[in-house]
Fold this sequence. Notes:
447 residues; alpha+beta; seven-stranded antiparallel β-sheet; 11 helices; 20 strands
Amino acid sequence: MRSPASLVENLPIGIYTCDRAGLIVQYNRRAAELWGRAPALGDPDSLCCGAFKIMDRQGREVAVDESPMAVVLATGQPVRDRELTVERQDGTRVAILANVDPIFDEHGTLLGGVNCFQDVGELVRVKDQMREGRRVARHVMEALPAAIYTTDAEGRLLYYNKAAERLWGFAPKIGEQLWCGSWKIYLPDGTLLPHDRCPMAVALKEQRALVGPEAVVERPDGTRVPFLPYPTPLFGSDGELIGGVNMLIDLTGQKRADAQQRGLIDELNHRVKNTLATIQSLAAQTMRGPHGDGEFEGRLLSLSRVHDQLTRNAWEWADLAAIAGDTFRPLRGSANSHVAIEGPSVKLKPRIALAMGMVLHELACNAMRHGALSTPAGTVALRWRVEGRMLLVDWREEGGPAVAAPRKRGFGTRLLERSIAHELGGRPTIAFSAAGVHCTMEIPLPE
């Protein structure tokens, strides 16, 4: 059996003792290994410690009179779990954990101290990694756009990120509020949902993860935010419930998008019905006329071209200049050179754009069939301007055959009156003078 001195010499931890004056009177092999040197016993240059240099966890050098052994010798009180760094003469460093106890004689007189210290480099590295991991995780949580908060097993609020604070509209006190940090919660039908029945409370009480149900947060200022919760209980390595984490997804954007989609569908249905009614009217009016299928096809194409304009602009608007240009696109050869189009860019709402497209088409067809564009010398001038909230359009034909007022109102005249006067609330005028047709339109523009 080994002697006590042999056992101390072969311990895997460093041990050394100092007398009352701090002189080292004994140390073992492991202590010398950790110091990186073997100081002479009683050497006054190695007072209280055999290391070349010791530093605290922040990297500051510890003076001799501040070392754990010096503190014990000065106070007679033990020092526990002091984390230090030993720097050797070759510059290498070792993280140690020191525990120093005073040594008294049978009369209680302080004789010295004994220091047991060990290499905790791996432990410090793991602790540093864990600390860095927690720091990174916290930054990630703060950067997330979704609201995140955690509670303990009893539901007490432990943590929440900035997104949660924005969602709740205030910053609840940690450790005081239960189950959730929101001020008030409602079900989608407006029923108040008590906090002890909120999704997080249910998840913790039933110890199961939930998705939903959808609810509404009311902030202290009265504003409300719809959200979808994802509460999840957390368990320790022993399987016991230790808390919960909840993610709250703000549904405001989704609700707005859903409303816009419903509005677009309703608007699309409305426009499809209007378009079908327009086509039915065109078909009925055309069948009564002398030009049959060709005229009907031309009117449909005109309607289609305005639809194309509106579709390219998400059915928000169509430019009057583009509509006017499309109106005369079917003209061939030099006929286009007899048309003058002049006016600023005006974004017309769908209802006005469709009406203007059909009216200009009828005027152009009439000019090509009977009016100025039916002869090589004839011209058409289409001009418009905006005054206040009023669109003023002027169609003037010159140089064509002599014009006489028709004995009965044709489709074009009826369309002009119905579209401009009745549908748009405007004021159309058309004059059949001998020099040519002159048509003006005054159309109110919406705000």
